[in-house]
Amino acid sequence: MHVDKAVELSTSDSATATGNDALSILTVERDNIAILTVHGSLDLLTATHLATAVGDALESQPHGVIIDLTATEFLASAGMTALVAAYEATTPAPFGVVAAGPSTARPLKLVGLDHTFALYPTLDEALAATAAASPNP
């Protein structure tokens, strides 16, 4: 797996890129909330990369985790399993998934995962809800 440290965004924001040809994950920390943006296909071959990225993000003990799937082209059952594992690893911190398209929101709703963790149509909505549910520093 290839990992690059991206440029620092500001004194309170940082970013890390992880991935391969089929998947890349950009991790940004904003106001102590880890945001993992998934680009590409989240399937049997790439789901372990999400698990690794979540584990790396949790090392900084964020007050919440958001996984943004708006740039995800394909979400297989292995990817959904990785999302459940991420939710379980994050608990009790707030956790949410941004999914609005037919390739992400639809399968998550079909299998009922919208009842397991919060789904948001936009990153802004996810950030607002996660910040509201996060413990005060």
TrEMBL record:
Domain of life: Bacteria
SUPFAM superfamilies the record matches: SpoIIaa-like (SSF52091)
InterPro entries: STAS_dom, STAS_dom_sf
Domain STAS stretches: 23-130
Pfam families tied to this protein: STAS
Protein name, as recorded: Anti-anti-sigma factor
Protein's organism: Williamsia marianensis
GO MF assignments: anti-sigma factor antagonist activity
